[in-house]
Amino acid sequence: MKTLKDAEVGNYYSVKKIHGSGPLKRRIMDMGITKNAELYVRKVAPLGDPVQISLRGYELSLRKDDSSCVEIELIERG
């Protein structure tokens, strides 16, 4: 299982599942990170926290703890 925490800069990913429950999962979904959403990893801070992504036409930064709850799959671009 690969999570957003492990994502590589410059790649596109599809969200497969959001782990966790309660307020954290609700907050992540409220930010637009939902199943099958496509996102692009723009950059990662030097110490790996936060991760900056492009999603649904806007930029979003997520903490390492939050990004570890988002299961992703690489989208091959040709």
Automatic annotation (TrEMBL):
<keyword id="KW-0408">Iron</keyword>
<dbReference type="InterPro" id="IPR038157">
    <property type="entry name" value="FeoA_core_dom"/>
</dbReference>
<feature type="domain" description="Ferrous iron transporter FeoA-like">
    <location>
        <begin position="2"/>
        <end position="74"/>
    </location>
</feature>
<dbReference type="InterPro" id="IPR052713">
    <property type="entry name" value="FeoA"/>
</dbReference>
<dbReference type="Pfam" id="PF04023">
    <property type="entry name" value="FeoA"/>
</dbReference>
<protein>
    <submittedName>
        <fullName>Ferrous iron transport protein A</fullName>
    </submittedName>
</protein>
<dbReference type="InterPro" id="IPR008988">
    <property type="entry name" value="Transcriptional_repressor_C"/>
</dbReference>
<dbReference type="InterPro" id="IPR007167">
    <property type="entry name" value="Fe-transptr_FeoA-like"/>
</dbReference>
